Amino acid sequence: MTTRPVLLSSCAKATTAAEARFRIDVPIEGRRGARVVALDDDAATIVRRLALQQWNGARFFTLVAGAGSGRNGVGDDPDEMPLHRTNGTDTRLADELMAADVAVMLATADGGAAAAASAIGRACARRGIMTAGLVLGDRHEVGDVVVALRPYAQVLLVTADEQDVHEVLTALRA
């Protein structure tokens, strides 16, 4: 077995002074417009817990009952979808997406989440907002919401580990 020499540019400790001039030594700033929406009741519990942690300006929401399904006066316009902030106040999806640069949808079950996921995904797609879908649960039990998220989510993760949600939000600099 032959070993190859390490090239100077392949290791941060081995860079020359000329190469080091181009290194970025400042921390990467967090996002200013991350929006995290729980699509069902179990996801809402997780989102409320996450909202208590330190984030880079992320905002956390739960759905109003029937949101995204064409009921309660929402109609087919996803912009009018009502949301609850985790502090208990109400807002609309359109208002929250104005300053958003990423929308993360969290689901744990199929119970109505598919329609809301599709509505939020369409609203984000129209605005060019990156969308991530995080689905907690057994892959055999969450198929409908995965299908609804797939066309809109640049990041789509099905997992059984709640810690993965925190990790993805951290990776997205939420």
From TrEMBL:
Source taxon at top rank: Bacteria
Protein name: 3-methyl-2-oxobutanoate hydroxymethyltransferase
